[in-house]
Amino acid sequence: MAAAVVELYSEAKPTIGPTIENGFYYDFDDLSITKGDLAKIEEKMRELLKRWAEFTKKEVSAEEASEHFKNNPYKLELINELAKENQKITFYTSGEFTDLCRGGHAENPSKEIAKDSWKLSTVAGAYWRGDEKNKQLTRIYGIAFHTKKALEEYEALMKESEKRDHRKLGKELGLFTFDDDVGPGLPLWLPKGAILIEELEKLAKETENRAGYERVRTPHIAKESMYLRSGHLPYYEDTMFPPMEYEGEKYYLKAMNCPHHHKIYAASGHSYRDLPVRLAEYGTVYRHEKSGELFGLMRVRMLSMNDAHIYCSEDQFADEFRAVNDMYLYYFKLFGIEKYQMRFSTHGPKKLGEKYVDEPALWKKTEDMVRQVLIESKIPYVEVPNEAAFYGPKIDVEVWSAIGREFTLATNQVDFAVARRFGLVYTAASGEEETPLIIHRAPLGTHERFIGFLIEHYAGAFPLWLSPVQAVVLPVSEKHREAAKTALAELRSAGIRAELSDATESLGKRMREVKLKKAPYWLVIGEKDVAAAAATFESRDRGPLGQVSIPEISKTLSTEITARG
Ligand code: ZN
């Protein structure tokens, strides 16, 4: 692409162009183009590609490299850095085009790269090296696959995800909104969105009660001293909102629930007989995200997290970790999440005491236990060495939506350092004081991210138990209004979230509206139905169900809701 661009626009200066997931990009200075110019560049690429039979590698000195790129300050900057770090400087040439490049290419592009398995997708602005103090460059994105079929599948997926975009559907279904006066990244949940939240919290509470969790509540602000103790300050200060001064103290909005829970654990004495202690809270945290990085519900400044901390002894760790995994699997099944994976980040033994807490035995023991549980529960996982958190192994949970898009939902962590910083202890059977291990877990992630995921996963057509509106009652005309209101009252008294679609518009128009809003069930009440104290019953997912009595409908829905079918 860079070769084609410089042939077409001789003044354009190529800067950096890496491969990315599903394709590549390249940033250029002195290039002013629009999306409309991409076809021309693609055409030139196809023309060049025919003639490119190889990439020739040449190792060059810094002087030679600088001479070649003397008119390109960006390449010169890169060459200087390579020279400073004593790294090899290599050029690769194909056709007339030479680039500064580390290498890693197709052997014979003209043969290996199908002419129709790639495409240029967009043009965007990008700062040199991502720093907004630098000059803005022109970035061209491309998508590239091995075959034309794979490219087409990817494009179909992108089109489908556009239709399922949580920002678009969130608006159409009346779930959430943002307001300038409230501030960017701070979602306002509308009544229908609040129902989703309440249903998810109900689910979490029921599941966690069964699993022996206890619920706690914590304030949204805390003094600087606590975050210094937890280590969030000064290390994560730039992810937190700036502090407020109050009564001569600095207070911070909480960015993590953990330290608050640790204080609750510390508030009473614990013996080995009380362990594990499992403290749960749908806790709201506040994070400073750059305004340019905010994105719908996916990147926000306020998050409500399905949080809990488990304080246990080393002996209990494997069972506790297994139970946490089982909870994930239960949720995946419930939400029809068929593809998932755990990304298990372990420590790097060479960096003990520097990047990782200096506890070699504990690292080995917990990592072995985590690995063992993952293998036993047959959870697909990948192990990533040297990416653990400072204080223990980390497990990122990745799920794929119904259309195959990946989301990182939550991070689980094992922590064997912070308990000491907070002086958390329990009395062991021996009478000695011991430090508990801590598991941080959040299977449903945050409301914001999880609901964003669910909107895409279900394309807004939520299962009955989760649907903000579960059934719509439609009288055929004004004459049937009273019967419709009676049916509505009966459904509502059974705890079903039913709505009336009043006969002010034609039935056809109202039906279209019901389908657009993705209601799981609707009841049409006409002459025949009034006489039979029934409705013509239809399901979004199963189609027409015929004439059914109102009590029967009420029973069907209640059963399905209770079962979270
Ligand atoms: Zn935590």
UniProtKB/TrEMBL annotation:
* Keywords from the UniProt entry: Aminoacyl-tRNA synthetase, ATP-binding, Coiled coil, Cytoplasm, Ligase, Metal-binding, Nucleotide-binding, Protein biosynthesis, RNA-binding, tRNA-binding, Zinc
Set out the biological process GO terms recorded for this chain's protein.
threonyl-tRNA aminoacylation
Coiled-coil residues: 31-58
* Sequence ranges assigned to domain Aminoacyl-transfer RNA synthetases class-II family profile in this UniProt record: 196-463
Q: Principal localization? A: cytoplasm
What Pfam families does the record point to?
A: HGTP_anticodon (PF03129), tRNA-synt_2b (PF00587), tRNA_SAD (PF07973)
Give the cofactor note text.
Binds 1 zinc ion per subunit.
Which molecular function terms from Gene Ontology are attached? ATP binding; metal ion binding; threonine-tRNA ligase activity; tRNA binding
**Per the entry, which co-factors are needed?**
Zn(2+)
GO cellular component, alphabetical, reads:
cytoplasm
Keyword Ligase, does the record have it?
Answer: yes
Q: What is its EC number?
A: 6.1.1.3
Residues recorded as binding Zn(2+), renumbered to this chain, are: 258, 309, 440
SUPFAM superfamilies attached to this UniProt entry: Class II aaRS ABD-related, Class II aaRS and biotin synthetases, ThrRS/AlaRS common domain
Q: Which family does it belong to?
A: Belongs to the class-II aminoacyl-tRNA synthetase family.
From the Swiss-Prot or TrEMBL record, give the protein name: Threonine--tRNA ligase
Give the species this sequence originates from.
Candidatus Kaiserbacteria bacterium RIFCSPHIGHO2_01_FULL_53_31
Q: Gene name, please?
A: thrS
